[in-house]
Design a protein that fits this description.
There is one protein chain. This protein is of the alpha/beta class and 137 residues long. The protein has one domain: Rhodanese-like domain (Oxidized Rhodanese, domain 1, 3-Layer(aba) Sandwich), CATH 3.40.250.10. Helices cover 25% and strands 15% of the residues. The protein has 4 helices and 7 strands, in the order βαβαββαβαββ. It has a 5-stranded parallel beta sheet. Strands 3-7 form a two-stranded antiparallel sheet. The protein is globular, with a radius of gyration of 14 Å.
Length: 137
Amino acid sequence: MSYAGDVTPEQAWAGLRDEPGAVLVDVRTRAEWSYVGLPDLSSLGKEPVLLEWQSFPTGAVNVGFTDELAAAGVAKDAPLYLLCRSGVRSVAAAEAATREGWTRAHNVLHGFEGPHDDQRHRSVAGWKVAGLPWVQG
């Protein structure tokens, strides 16, 4: 079973703005939330759900991810936008959510910081590069 698809950061923002029940789930690690920053949804009257897909520093997958998603009150029919650093972990999280019954789980392409450029810097795509609101953790 495939997840609902990939969306750009701008499309995720529009969904979060226009769909009252839409939820952004940031699946990065606590370290990333603290040191890199967080999407700022305050102008929409929302907060991102912070739920690690993999733990830092081991990289172990959070086997309780979907249980924690349910415990956070995310409805299974809610538009769900999953975000990581570059759009890789969030695909795995979207697939897991879909397997467990979330019907509208989307991956946010390029994540919060985007892929590496030729100098191995993350500044070519993603939430931050798109100019969407964010705050330092």
